[in-house]
Each structure stands twice: as C-alpha cells, then as structure tokens.
Amino acid sequence: MLEGKNILLGVCGSIASYKSATIVRLLVKAGANVRVIMTKDATHFITPLTLSTLSKNPVLVDYFNQETGEWNNHVELAAWANLILIAPASANTLAKFSGGLCDNLLAAVYLSAKSKIYLAPAMDLDMWKHPATQRNIHHLESYGNVVITPAYGELASGLVGEGRLAEPEDICRFIAEDTERKAILKGKKVLITAGPTYEAIDPVRFIGNHSSGKMGFAIAEELFECGADVTLITGPTHLKEIKGIRRINITSSQEMLKNTLEQYIDANITIMSAAVADYRPKEIATEKIKKDSFEFAIELVKTTDILHKLGELKTPNQILIGFALETENEEENAIKKLTRKNLDFIVLNSLKDIGAGFKSDLNKITIIDKFLKKETFPLKSKKEVAMDIRQKILDLI
What we know:
The protein is an alpha/beta fold. The chain is built from 13 helices and 21 strands. It has 2 domains: 6-182, Rossmann fold; 189-396, 3-Layer(aba) Sandwich (Rossmann fold), CATH 3.40.50.10300.
C-alpha cells in the first residue's frame, strides 16, 4: 500500500532518533519515496548523512542553506507529501504543533500540510503522562492527526512504562494498514456537486443564493482520501482546488445540468449537495438594465430538476444521494423528495439550526434512507459531517 507514496519523515530530538534509520529503510523497501526533515536537536542523536544515505535524498534541517542561500520551501514540501510521519515526535514538538508555533522548518511544513499526518511520540514515562502532554495529544487528534501510541517498556531514564517509541516495523505496518483502510473506495467513481448557481439577469446582475460550497468540498475531500476517483462540479465559490480531485467550474443551472449528465453515466456514487436555483430569468438582457422606474419585474421560468432527472436515469448499480435544506415541515418535505427522486438516502439540514447552514464551518444533519430509517447527528464540523456521510455510503456498499 505504500508503493509509490511520497512520505515525509520528521525526526525530532530524542534518544529514539536512532530508530529513524530503520523506519527510512523499511519505507524505502516498501517502495515509498522518502524525504527527511530533522530538527536541530535531532542531529545530536543521529547524523543527517545516515538518513540521507538511506533515503537517497538530501536531509533538510534549516529554512535555507546558509552557504548557497537556497530556500527550502515548506509549502512545496508539504504539498509533495502524500503523508507525513513524525517519528520520533518529542514532547517539545508535539507542544509546538498543538499550539501552532512555527520556529523551525518541520513546524512550518506541519502547519502547511494538507495530507494525513502520523505522530509517533517518544519520551519519558512522566513526560508522556503529564496533563500538558495529554492535552496536546487530544488537541492534535482533534485536528485530524493520527497518534501511534508509544509502547510500554524500558526507557532511557531507566524507568519502565509507556513512552517508548513504537518499533519501526509496527509503525510502518500501522501506516500501511491505515492507508489500506483509507483506500476502501478505490476503483469507485464519485460525482459531487457543490456551491450555488448564478442565473444571469443582465451582464451585471444575477439571481443566486448563499451557498459557500463548503459541505460539498468536505465530502469530496473525504471520499478522495478513501481512494475514490472524485469529480467535483462546483458553482461560484472562493474555495481552493483540492489536489487530486478533478474540478469542473460552472456558473448557471443549465451548465450544472449539462456537466452533471455527462459525468453521471460513469459514476458509481453521486452526491448532489449543490444549491441549484429553482428558477431563472426567462430572458437575459444583453445590456445592463437601467433603473428608470420604481418597479421592475422579471419573468422567471423553472430550471430543470437535475436530481429528479438523475433519479430517472439511475441504474441498480448506482448510488444517488440528495440534500434537502428546509425551513418548515423538514422531515415531511425531505421524505417526499427522497421518494419522488429515487434516492438511496437524503441528507436533511434546517436553517433553524443555530450555527449550521450556509457559509458556516458547522452543520447539523439528519440522514433518512429509502427505507425511511432516520439517524440524527449533533452539530459538528463539516469535515466530521462528511465522515458521517462517508460511513453511510460504506454501509450501503
């Protein structure tokens, strides 16, 4: 599972740093491309030359080479990595990561990273058990980092207990197995729509809505991390590209319809989270409309119901998921939509839920499946909501 993966190994100041050499050797043997970043304290325990020789890449310590002035670009390093492993991760570095401190190259790469991060702590028993360290571990896990629990055994201090760096073989096995679990949707083609549509009135004005696209983007990223081949069709949004995900930018409902139908044929799983306009102007003015009167009327016509169209075209091997944003009779309206549009399940959210909805980083959902089984979730980050939706999809599969 690690063959061809770009793995960035961070090595911190610890007596356990000597095990980093074995970790590099095992990762390279597994077919991974390995680059190493060391803190300055780590160089007191193991030489950069050792890790450079084993990884077949220069080892980086500082922001720049003092002799040449060449900058080690922390953003590019973070973007290069498919995953980042910090082993050993010292109490000092864990505290820096938890607090967002950025006083060395490794911390800068960590703060720039968008890939999966594994932390393998190593420290003395009392340091590991200290409330400050445990608080930092809790914070880091809440950020999405994966902590590889230290082993129980004899420590450098002579004490016996938890705090010993997990064995290199166990660390590499853990990462490989976790990567395999994350590839559970490998081979599946996923189509996701996100964001609003803008329906032009004239060259300047449009009819739109407040959708930010955040929910759809979070789902796209979550399913991509599970190995899916993801296509994201999005309306106007400020959200950035997600590396590895094919993005199709559209503006109007008609563009959304055209592109969605083209991609739907090959999709195994389709998630329609976009807030598509229900109506559009019948005529679009070719010139800017002047405000010559106190009243102004626009004749509107219905847009094509894309989700209903997909429900009609759906095959038994396809999974189709819709969203319902309601302000009244929420469950009743969602169930009607679920049944009428031939969905496998529908994700219901309400504008009445404080802190959730448009533009927010939080959401509160209820999932109702085609058997009318209902599951309501508390207010969560949209990343966590995406994980709940992912699990429901896996249950269906």
